[in-house]
Design a protein that fits this description.
By secondary structure, this protein is mostly beta strands. The chain has strands at 2-8, 11-16, 20-24, 33-36, 39-44, 47-50, 59-79, 84-103. It has one domain. 0% of the residues lie in helices and 70% in strands.
Length: 104
């Protein structure tokens, strides 16, 4: 089994080839390909490479399949006995990426 741990968009994800994951928006158009060299760990069957902090010469190539907004979250603040109420909405900007290749 071949997989990697990458740091992308401020978070860490376990990725495998030909799998799709959802990350925070990367500001890349749909259909475009890109890569990241922030690979923290690579596992290829019984061979394990751990970075310090990144694995030298390793990269992960991916393709943006979809950019969209997440579900709306309502944030409500309330303080009793003081008539203080605030409602605010939030929708996260998300991107679906498909991992095309893990290089090491």
């Amino acid at each position: 089994m071949k997989y990697a741990i990458i740091a992308i968009a401020g978070s860490q994800y376990k990725v495998e080839e030909d799998k799709t994951i959802t990350v925070s928006s990367l500001n890349i158009n749909e259909g475009e390909s890109s890569s990241t060299s922030e690979v923290l760990l690579v596992v290829n069957d019984d061979k394990i490479m751990i970075g310090n902090p990144h694995v030298k010469g390793a990269s992960v190539e991916f393709k943006i399949t979809k950019n969209y907004q997440g579900e709306k979250i309502k944030v409500f603040k309330y303080k009793s006995k003081s008539r203080y109420r605030r409602t605010q909405g939030f929708r996260a900007q998300l991107s679906d990426i498909q991992i095309t290749k893990i290089n090491f």
